[in-house]
Write a structure and sequence with these properties.
This protein has 217 residues and is α/β, with parallel strands linked by helices. It is 33% helix and 21% strand. The protein is globular and about 40 Å long.
Length: 217
């Protein structure tokens, strides 16, 4: 995977991958627009939705030139994440699941943390949820663990080189976030953070983690 040369380089690229989540998208996208830090681009990667996703996205595209929309046939979320990485121009890359949202101060402290610790290449963590959410353990899928104990790829915030040198996410039905984190740990400096809890997790009925956990059990 080779980065694309471009003469505009936003500080942060935010990648939202979505599939039939139109009813969540306004809240998700608006949470990016409401960020205290504003030098970002947003890539909405549509993994072949058959609902009214495009009708939700179009008004944003007409109004904001730092929001882009990509659509391809349904190839599952790892392909969609990698498509977003490939299309990005930011110095730092981060993610947002289409059923989740950011608190207004999500980006600013993470960027400040990375700049204060230039030796660190990738961070993750800082999840807020109004309820306890249990998911299948990546290492022992017959066991349930608290979401906050997991590697949650949507909270990844890292230098551009990390994602390109690792060639993005491996195509897996479950656990691609942990897989990428483990590969990153071998060649980059990584750090888990707990605060600030500004990534707001909301699990949709069609959530991959929920479906995998229910099917496995």
């Amino acid at each position: 995977m080779s980065p694309i040369a471009f003469d505009i380089s936003p500080e942060i690229s935010i990648i939202i991958c979505t599939y039939n989540r139109a009813r969540y998208l306004n809240k998700c996208i608006d949470s990016v627009l409401n960020q205290t830090f504003t030098n970002w681009e947003l890539l909405i990667v549509d993994d072949g939705s058959s609902d009214n996703t495009v009708e939700i996205v179009n008004p944003y595209l007409a109004k904001y030139n730092n929001i882009r929309y990509l659509k391809h046939q349904n190839k599952k979320q790892c392909y969609a994440k990698n498509a977003g990485i490939q299309a990005s121009f930011g110095k730092y890359l981060t993610f947002l699941d289409s059923d989740d949202s950011y608190k207004p101060n999500h980006l600013e402290p993470r960027l400040a943390y990375m700049k204060a610790h230039p030796e660190i290449d990738l961070i993750q963590g800082g999840v807020f949820s109004e309820e306890e959410i249990l998911v299948a353990d990546y290492y022992q899928p017959e066991k349930l663990i608290d979401l906050r104990e997991c590697v949650l790829g949507a909270t990844f915030f890292g230098k551009r080189k990390v994602f390109f040198e690792l060639q993005g996410f491996n195509h897996m039905a479950y656990g691609e976030d942990t897989d990428l984190w483990e590969r990153a740990e071998k060649i980059f400096k990584t750090q888990k953070i707990k605060e600030p809890e500004t990534y707001v997790y909301t699990r949709a009925e069609s959530s991959v983690s929920k479906n995998f956990t229910n099917n496995y059990r």
